[in-house]
Amino acid sequence: MKELLPLCLASLLMGSLSAQDIHFSQYFFAPQWLNPAEIGAAPAQYRATANQRTQWREVSQPYTTFAAAVDGQFEKLPDGLALGAAIMNDRAGDSRFNTFSLLIGSSYSYQFDEAGQHGLTGGLQTGLSQVSIDYSSLRFDRQYDGVAFDPNLPTGENFARNNRWHFNLSVGALYTYSHEEDKQIHVGWASHNLHAPDRSFYNDVGVNLPLRHSFYATATWRVHPVLDVLPAVHYMRQATFSEMMIGGSLRYELIRERSMYRAIYAGYHGRIGDSGIGLVGLEVDDWRFGLSYDINLSTLEVASRNRGGFEFSLQYLFRRLHRAGAFQHQYCPVFL
Fold first, then answer.
1. Beta-bridge partners for 175
2. Pairing state of beta strands 227-238 and 44-55?
3. Distance, CA of 182 to CA of 54 (rounded, Å)
4. Phi/psi at 38 (nearest 5 deg)?
5. What is the pLDDT of residue 201?
6. What is d(CA 170, CA 1) in angstroms, rounded to the nearest whole number?
7. Which segments of the chain have a pLDDT < 50?
8. Spatial separation of the C-alpha atoms in residues 234 and 167, rounded to whole Å
9. Spatial contact of 128 and 102, defined as CB atoms under 8 Å apart
10. What pLDDT is stored for residue 56 in this prediction?
11. Which pTM was predicted?
């Protein structure tokens, strides 16, 4: 039974992780992975982001994810049109199951009124992904001789390949309401894997990546001259699996001048039935830095000992937009 327990826990873990695409706890700092309509949704002409996540070190080989993206409203493009590009690499567990993606996308924004309080943005994203696996790191039941594991025994498996490329296609929409600079609401929707790509390593068996839907709402609301409340909710569903995150942060401004801005924030988000996420961050002029940690609260805590993983986010805004007489410091999407 002691030998079977880790296998059962690993099976439980793999079942939960295979349910959804790559995603981040700080989804508000990974806009192009959240929604193609978030492309160009920043208070600057250009934006660059980077995200790094490591988890499940206590359970197996660490699951590591790195992503980077650039987007903006480039010169000579029509007003309202923005372009973006993103790259991601994820390696999961003992099998070293690796996913690499290279995506490009575009969005178009329309303002319903002259004051710019109501806006609607649509986005489209496409690209290529490669999935690969290292069979030499895996163990199969036929390699047990009845007493011990023998890696020299045949696996009994007939894998046709160890990597595969597939096409990606995602769409999304974003509604924004801005009553004033420090009172804003964003509501977004996105659908990923529209064509359900085949990711099978067998040539005769289709293993399709299911369609994934994402819904979210974020806001920023000034409750004090130097204090903002930043609530957020995010729901995803893929096949029979779903995920709900609810939480928020408080942001405290240290300095706010036309040429200088300093702020700190801290908050908590709960992934219902799975984990709690504590986060802290720092804003220095055009730089944004976020650090979060997932505390595992699911049935996997027997193996994880409540340890989930760290996640780091970094963002930089180029040619930031300013309002006359004030320093505009909003950023996308949850801290807008």
1. 120, 187
2. unpaired
3. 33
4. -80, -10
5. 81
6. 44
7. 1-20, 302-304, 323-336
8. 26
9. yes
10. 59
11. 0.81
- Location of structure tokens 């909710």: 233
d(CA 39, CA 106): 6
Specify the residue for token string 């995506």. Answer: 103
Percent of the chain at pLDDT above 90?
48
- Judging by DSSP bridges, how do beta strands 261-271 and 241-256 pair with one another? antiparallel
Task: Specify which residues 281 forms β-bridges with.
Answer: 265, 290
Phi, psi of 304 (to 5 degrees): -80, -20
Cβ–Cβ under 8 Å, residues 175 and 188: yes
Q: Which residues contact 330 (CB under 8 A, 6 or more apart)?
A: 43, 181, 182, 184, 220, 336
Q: Tell me, what's the pLDDT at 326?
A: 43
Among residues 237, 117, 276, 242, the alpha carbon closest in space to that of 181 is found at: 117
Q: How far apart are CA 261 and CA 259, in angstroms?
A: 7
The three-point CA angle 210-214-219 to 5° equals: 170
Name the pairing type of β-strands 212-224 and 183-192.
antiparallel
**Superfamily of segment(s) 4-320:** monomeric porin ompg (2.40.160.40)
CA distances (Å), origin 85, targets 104, 117, 128, 275, 332:
4, 28, 12, 30, 17
Going from N- to C-terminal start, the domains of the chain cover 4-320
CA distance 220 to 225: 13
Give burial (CB, 10 Å; 0-12/13-18/19+) of 235.
middle
Q: Which residue has the tokens 């300093």?
A: 262
Q: Which residues of 138-147 are buried (b: 16+ CB within 10 A; e: fewer)?
A: eeeeebeeee
Residues 52, 87: Cα–Cα separation, whole Å: 12
